[in-house]
Write a structure and sequence with these properties.
three-stranded antiparallel beta sheet, 2 domains, PX_dom, three-stranded mixed beta sheet, cytoplasmic vesicle, PX Domain, single chain, Substrate Binding Domain Of Dnak, Chain:A, Domain 2
């Protein structure tokens, strides 16, 4: 008996491993202790596709509009503020990028098994230029949509504080900020807040979990590669449209214009209609060139914005998977110790139970990812194709207008 109780599952010597840093290791080994308030509980339920986060009973959205340049310190410091209007309060608040950045940092630290969407990148120079501000607003809108769509992140205190604290109440903002920074349900204690299904049919087969997580790991690797490739292709295509195609169409237009000018030298009354029709064709090609240059903003840019957001999610998953894998390793180790008579069964069962909690949360997160991925890519591909159809309809219209000019020649 004495020998049994002295055996412990070995600790990970790499202090920088995500499994250790996230508090996953301490939790699995039963070292987490804290009082979980009802409001802190995160529920995983069994849905038709397996474990899922319990839906937010009060879903809401939040728009991000009107980026405006503001100043402080008597105009010495400038910054851009965004107007946020959450649908569940209807009250607008203004937030700067640094506020988003603070929130992202808090949430990424608090939720080791949830993919907190990455913010659009910082930019030191040219951050007041119109194109950059517009692009960043679109990136933040995607970010906000993913935050509001996540059953756990949407209801988190820090996020709600960010959405609802009046912009003018500096004191209340700082209080909420301090409260979030002092949150005790982080690290190993965070895992205590997760409640999972119990009773018959609710336990997970760890081998099956392992194969599901491995399958998802392969999927994310492939998705990451293809997203990177599509981003590169779309970028290249957009560049060609803005510079190359516009130039080529306008070159054709210019050549038609030269032909009509040459024809005008004949000074024959009966050929005036033809000259005008050819000049109109030249203008049509010129206009089509402009349509090509404007088009990426309508169709390719939104696709690239979506890909940027998903590349952030895909960058998060190796760490999430690492936490789950680390927990599984501890279970295997403890089982071996029991077989060798070095550990009591009860202790090993505790490790397995806590690993179960991490596995439920990981599978719930994977399910959520697939759900929003299907939603987002469906709507974005529909938008892309609708915009493409509109574009070619505009091109066709220009060509048809030009064609009709020859009817009366």
């Amino acid at each position: 008996g004495g020998a049994k109780s002295s055996a412990t599952v070995s600790r990970n010597l790499n202090r920088f491993s995500t499994f250790v840093k996230s508090g996953g290791e301490a939790f699995v080994l039963g070292e987490a202790s804290g009082f979980v308030k009802d409001g802190d509980k995160l529920c995983v339920v069994l849905g038709p596709r397996g474990p899922e986060w319990q839906e937010n009973p009060y879903p809401f959205q939040c728009s991000i509009e009107d980026p405006t340049k503001q100043t402080k310190f008597k105009g010495m410091k400038s910054y851009i503020a965004y107007k946020l209007v959450p649908s569940h309060t209807g009250q607008q608040v203004h937030r700067r990028y640094k506020h988003f950045d603070w929130l992202y940092g808090r949430l990424a630290e608090k939720f080791p098994v949830i993919s907190v969407p990455h913010l659009p990148e910082k930019q030191a120079t040219g951050r007041f230029e119109e194109d950059f501000i517009s692009k960043r607003r679109k990136g933040l809108a995607w970010w906000m949509d993913h935050m509001c769509s996540h059953p756990v992140l949407a209801q988190c205190d820090a996020f709600q504080h960010f959405l609802t604290c009046p912009s003018t109440d500096e004191k209340a903002w700082k209080q909420g900020k301090r409260k979030a920074e002092k949150d005790e349900m982080v690290g190993a204690n965070f895992f205590l807040t997760i409640s999972v299904p119990t009773g018959p049919g609710a336990s997970l087969d760890l081998q099956e979990v392992e194969s599901q997580v491995d399958g998802f790991k392969a999927f994310t690797k492939k998705m990451d590669e293809s997203a990177l490739q599509l981003n590169h292709t779309a970028n290249e295509f957009a560049r060609k449209q803005v510079a190359g195609f516009k130039k080529e169409y306008q070159k054709v237009g210019h050549s038609f214009k030269c032909l009509s000018q040459a024809f005008e030298l004949d000074q024959q009354a009966f050929s005036a209609g033809l000259n005008q029709a050819i000049a109109f064709t030249a203008e049509a090609y010129d206009a089509i060139g402009d349509l090509f240059a404007d088009q990426p903003r309508q169709d390719l840019d939104p696709v690239m914005d979506l890909l940027a957001l998903y590349q952030g999610h895909l960058a998060n998953f190796p760490d999430i998977i690492h936490v789950q894998k680390g927990a599984l390793t501890k279970v295997k180790e403890s089982k071996r110790h029991v077989e060798e008579g070095k550990m009591e069964l009860q202790k090993a069962e505790g490790i397995q139970e806590r690993c179960n909690i991490i596995s439920f949360a990981t599978l719930a997160e994977i399910n959520h990812f697939h759900k929003i991925r299907v939603r987002d890519f469906k709507s974005q591909m529909q938008h892309f194709l609708q915009q493409q159809i509109l574009f070619f309809q505009k091109v066709t219209q220009k060509l048809e207008e030009a064609l009709h000019k020859y009817d009366s020649v």
